[in-house]
Amino acid sequence: MSAPQFDPATYDAQLAEKAERLQALLAPFDAPAPQVFDSPREHYRLRAEFRLWRETGSERRDYAMFEQGDKHTPILIEHFPIASARINELMPRLKAGWQASPALSFKLFQVEFLTTLSGDALITLAYHRPLDAAWQEAAEALASELGASIVGRSRGKRIVIGRDHVEEELQVAGRRFRYRQPEGAFTQPNGEVNQKMLGWAYEALGPREDDLLELYCGNGNFTLPLATRVRKVLATEISKSSVNAALANLADNGIDNVTLVRLSAEELTQALNEVRPFRRLAGIDLKGYDFGSVFVDPPRAGMDPDTCELTRRFERILYISCNPETLAQNIAQLHDTHRVERCALFDQFPYTHHMEAGVLLTRR
């Protein structure tokens, strides 16, 4: 990612501009003014990734970032105020660790941090060489010193020191939910805003006596709180690592009314339309569900036309979007049968043009 133009003094103005932009995008659909959920002004990002830069003739390696399209002019980083306080605390200590150890620094080219609001941390070190016993011994000592897990990656190999995931706790409507967030898998980058987003979705769905279909469920980020609002949930996700994390998260939280199937949204659409059967749905009675609501959190491309058409069947469509432009395109397809009852702006990425939005669509 390119370095954001970090300036807390401009935050309120840039957030107001985002709210105006979202309202303009949704104006053709007579949407109400969005609820706006702001971000902490600094230390809000729970993930960070840095390349390492080594000047010719020097063994010193520094954290570096690059402007998009320029891989030759490094922006050297000593501290990173948009990243969590835990990442900033770890950065100099990790750097001192690799500088003091040839086994850790030799051909190290990238560092990734994954942290949580609850203070857990995992560091991934990526290498252009095989990892050996000397590396593992040094990494174990450093992990103990830092109080963090370390994952070493080289071509075709991964060595885990500690855990290959972090453990998060988020509070929604007075209940604490525990999440395992695996290394290398997608997680929401802004923990405080994610918590607000979960609370908004929980409130927007409301208590229901019917069932929920969830598409693109990931590691169960939304699944856990939303499952407490309905009778049953059928959730789908295509990523195997995310499915495994979601299953663990459901078990850890004692949530037993969710059936999780590893299918894409497009495949589930085919199954519900009885286009073709899927072995992964064997034993699942799709016709036994009384779906009243569908929850979607699609990738930036939004829902494909067939999946969008599928959601038209539901009384309520709860939609979280990381790309309001494709959200507007999907709403345009649904606008003749559904109206925008609620909408929200979630400022996951301060000091950038990116924003996340949520809408509740209800049948006319």
Automatic annotation (TrEMBL):
Q: Name one Pfam family in it.
A: tRNA_U5-meth_tr
What keywords would UniProt list here? Methyltransferase, S-adenosyl-L-methionine, Transferase, tRNA processing
For molecular function, the Gene Ontology terms on record are:
rRNA binding; tRNA (uracil(54)-C5)-methyltransferase activity, S-adenosyl methionine-dependent; tRNA binding
User: Which domain of life does the UniProt lineage start with?
Assistant: Bacteria
Transmembrane ranges, per UniProt, are none
Give the enzyme's EC designation.
2.1.1.35
UniProt keyword S-adenosyl-L-methionine present: yes
GO cellular component terms, alphabetically, are:
cytosol
Q: Which reaction does it catalyse?
A: uridine(341) in tmRNA + S-adenosyl-L-methionine = 5-methyluridine(341) in tmRNA + S-adenosyl-L-homocysteine + H(+); uridine(54) in tRNA + S-adenosyl-L-methionine = 5-methyluridine(54) in tRNA + S-adenosyl-L-homocysteine + H(+)
According to its UniProt record, this protein's enzyme class is transferase
BP terms from Gene Ontology: tRNA methylation
Residues reported in the UniProt entry to bind S-adenosyl-L-methionine: 188, 216, 221, 237, 297
The answer to whether keyword S-adenosyl-L-methionine applies is yes
Q: Which Gene3D superfamilies match?
A: 2.40.50.1070, Vaccinia Virus protein VP39
Active-site annotation: 322, 356
Its biological function?
A: Dual-specificity methyltransferase that catalyzes the formation of 5-methyluridine at position 54 (m5U54) in all tRNAs, and that of position 341 (m5U341) in tmRNA (transfer-mRNA).
Q: Which family does the record claim for this protein?
A: Belongs to the class I-like SAM-binding methyltransferase superfamily. RNA M5U methyltransferase family. TrmA subfamily.
- Name listed for the protein in its UniProt record: tRNA/tmRNA (uracil-C(5))-methyltransferase
Q: What organism, scientifically named, is this protein from? A: Stutzerimonas nosocomialis
